[in-house]
Amino acid sequence: MKKLAIVIYILFCLIAGGSNVASEEVYSELVEHNQIYEIRYYKPVLVAEVEYIGDNGGFSALFNYISGANNLSSPQSNPSSSTKIEMTTPVTRFKQNNRNIMQFFLPKRFTLETAPIPTNSNVSIKLNDGGHFAVIRYSGRASEENFLRHSKLLVERLVLDEIEFLEPAIRATYNGPFTPPFMRRNEVMYKIKWSQ
Question: Nearest Cα to 70, choosing from 124, 127, 126, 128?
Fold first, then answer.
């Protein structure tokens, strides 16, 4: 009976959350919302970042980093001093100056001084600026078409509401690949100038 309960629990987790094993979501404060989008305030947050080529070229480098491809004190440290870092959400992607960038947010227990150092020189640790962001949420696949459609919708509404926004559009995903598309949480985010 106990084994059956465990199997049912695992199946429930797979159906409800896919392979999303994230234990922490980046904290934000809801400032305002309407039928189309939300305005959130984010404090500065630590990220692991990589530039990549293609659709998901940065994911493996970042996943390897949180899985132990890191050192606790210096790049030359003994590999046994590495640590596993729990996955957080969302994973973000954007294009800036013709560069594809992907970011994993580090758990809030880390600082620039205590964050493990990547062994892959393509992965960097940095403090992201905080600020106000306009966010539109949608389900379905995290495809380019879906992202661009919702990005356009958000831009049109921000222009209508006379809210100044900054490029680039940020693609945020929260679920693993086994999550049914209708249960997935995807977002388009634009940093905005907000003084209200």
Answer: 124
